[in-house]
Amino acid sequence: MVILFVLFLLSFAWSESVQIEVDFDGKKIRANGEWVVPEGVDPAKKGAILWLHGLFQTHKMQEPITFQREAWVSEGFPVLSPTLTLGIDNRTQPYDCSYPLDHEYKQNLKEIKEWVKWLKSKGVKRIILAGHSMGGQQVIHAYEFLKDDSVVGILAVAPAKGLKREHPLLEKAKKLYEEGKGKTLLKTRFFYCKEAQVSARTLYTYYGVDRNIGRFLERIKVPVLIVWGGEDDRIRDLPEFLKPYLKNNIRLEVIDYADHFFRDLAGEDLSAIAVEFFGEVLR
Question: Where are the domain boundaries for CATH 3.40.50.1820 in the chain?
């Protein structure tokens, strides 16, 4: 019944597949996304949500990306969902371990910046950065990278912690990176891939740099909402991890029975919490 209701409300919204050009290693490649605006809503007056997918996914990921986008739009909020390129022109599929991966972590922040510029070119003056999992980590990092007053709030859903990871080839990757040989491909495990071809710069900048989100949260001035699921087996013990970094502008909500992807009823609870936050920030 809830899904039917959301679909009914979405008939009063317009959706547009959008594309921009971003710089990657000195050349232009295409990035794509989905821009959805409720009927009768002016994003220039209302503001908008930039909603970012998790690790190596796309804006078409069903849960939580598409489900939440539809729910938020049904409540009157314009939503832009971009797909990060990972250095791949017009990427439309999740990374599946079968092709080489070669980009730096910072490329993601640069692309978030370009999507913020795109929203501002549409007259949007107030933007909430939102992201799931690795996307949640990245929007937290992006706030400082952007230094843009149009960003008025952050929603991080089950954000990755941003800590350094152990890897048997990390020192080799770091050495190659520092010697200017960062594009050298290494055949190794990488996140969920048991075997993949990743460049030294990809391995090092994802695994070898301490990007503890807590330190970034301490410097954020705008309202922040962090939502975590008590059954999350991917980002474990997030409330305990964040406890030393929480301050007045940061709110942590826990949905006890939610997993990492906020499926089913947990998705409805997430959307209710998020919509309340959006209304407070964009009022």
Answer: 2-163+211-281
The closest alpha carbon to 17, from 77, 74, 80, belongs to 80
pTM for this structure? 0.95
| Contact partners, residue 202, CB within 8 Å, separation at least 6 | 101, 102, 103, 104, 190
Q: How far apart are CA 149 and CA 145, in angstroms?
A: 12
| Angle (CA) 53 163 213, round 5° | 65
Q: How many residues does the chain have?
A: 283
- List pLDDT tens digits, range 59-75: 999 999 999 999 999 99
Neighbouring-strand partners of residue 35: 16, 80
Superfamily of domain 2-163+211-281 in CATH is Alpha/Beta hydrolase fold, catalytic domain (3.40.50.1820)
Q: Is 75 exposed, middle or buried (0-12, 13-18, 19+ CB in 10 A)?
A: middle
Residue 231: how many other CB atoms lie within 10 Å: 11
Query: Cα–Cα distance between 125 and 42 in angstroms, integer?
Result: 11
